[in-house]
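Q: Protein A?
A:
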Amino acid sequence: MTIMIKIVLACLAIFAGIFAVKFLLFPAVYFIFNMQSGQLKVVEQFTTLMFIGLGYYLYVKYYEKRRPDELTFRASHLFYGAVSGAALISVTSLLLFYLGYYEVVSFQGLEGIPIVGSTILVAAMLEEFLFRGVLFRVIEAHVGTLFSLSFVATLFGLLHLFNENTTVVTAFSVTLLGVFWGGIYVLTRNIWVVGLNHAAWNFSIFSTGIPLSGNEDWRAVAPFESIYNGPLLLTGGEFGPEDSIINIIVLLISVVVIFYFAQKIRLLSALAKIPRRLSWKRRFR
């Protein structure tokens, strides 16, 4: 019951921030200025992100009564988080472009980047606040790291099956992504780092003009117009490169590396809280 109360209150705090921006603050702004420009939409997205962080901060400070260290800004860590996210998915995408399974048709311009880019950033950060900042962290505190990681990653994968153009591969590939981002949070204990990794990953896919997690809508405003052809297991098909077997292999290697370092620096001490029948702690001594 304590777990559920914490999760519900944390989610309410986060969504209260979103509600305040989307239904109170910016409707008033649009009414006063009698306009809905692209620039204002971008400002709205960044304001939404600020209020998401504020809601989480207030929950941690006044309900959990502790300092929210997971919200600490470290410029170098944020930079590495974003660059590594973009670089990792680019291994798959660039290889598929090189092999001819993805092909650039034309350059469409940069006009769509501000609105779509800010939307991608807010969506990725919101998912990380909810899945890693709330669900993973709260469950981990009660039952341990590996159980929490497995449960939240599985839930993350299952919920993405509601996206368009999913296949039998999607549940596994997105669950593996959940393990990957959960692992980054375990290593860094910083929501901004894992959120920027997630956002940079998604933005890299969008910018190439290839479907992003089954979403075809943004391809029309992507900087590049691209097409894909070839075996579904190789290209990822209409879901995008996340379903590619190349990406799955890259993620598996990355997860192994992450948990190797997690073991080395003893960040899995919370395993001691797992019931004996679930515990793997001897493997990490």
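Q: Protein B?
A:
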Amino acid sequence: MSMNDIRMALRQGGEAFLDLLFPEDGLCVHCHGESATEQGLCPACAQHLFPSAPPKCERCGRPLKNEGPLCGACQKSLPPFAGAAAPFLYRGLAGEMVREMKYHEKKRYANFLGDAMARCLQALEGPRPDVLVPVPLHRSRMRERGYNQAQWLAARVSLHCGAPVLPNALTRVRETDKQTRLETRAREKNVHDAFAVRKSRAVRGKCVWLIDDVLTTGATARNCARALLAGGAAQVWVLTATTVAWRPETGRLEDWEEA
């Protein structure tokens, strides 16, 4: 880990800790016009959230419509990760928060979403994480953007569950096109073999929870999980802020906006 990596991790962890101790102003994190509930939103804004509710696919965690135990996508191709979860669907306010956080550096949304992810993790019956690994950006994208929203989310989840964040355990070994421009098959091809474990000792024998902002086709999560398992991880689970649903009437994943 370079000194720049250490400084970034300390800065992000320190900011998240201060945010947890001293919330901004007690107002709604979205509209700032009304007093927030204990979870950060006013009642009016909270109506625009769509929780990821049961029944869900036992493998990818996507909501189902009276179908199971696996969604059609997992029946076609079982992911290498052991399970996945997300507190919200990628639509409405949660989808807007993800986009604002990801493209416009709105860290307050990372705090809100990370808190929700932590509550989601605490409610699961699955194994507790030994380590949290955010999905990495390629170094060129990181230089361009200056931040990785998955690291923000991981730092916030870590405050609640106590598992350490390993921001450099996984690396993106080649630059890829933005997934937003691609259809399902092209997304898988785009990120195939794009990830590798940098130091296998960090994940060997560990239950790793991969952290990201949204699970759409699952191409990124699958390829990250393959790399982590190849690097010696005992299990890989996926925790995202949002997910899309499986639609049995169309036999495909729910349409998503740019994610």
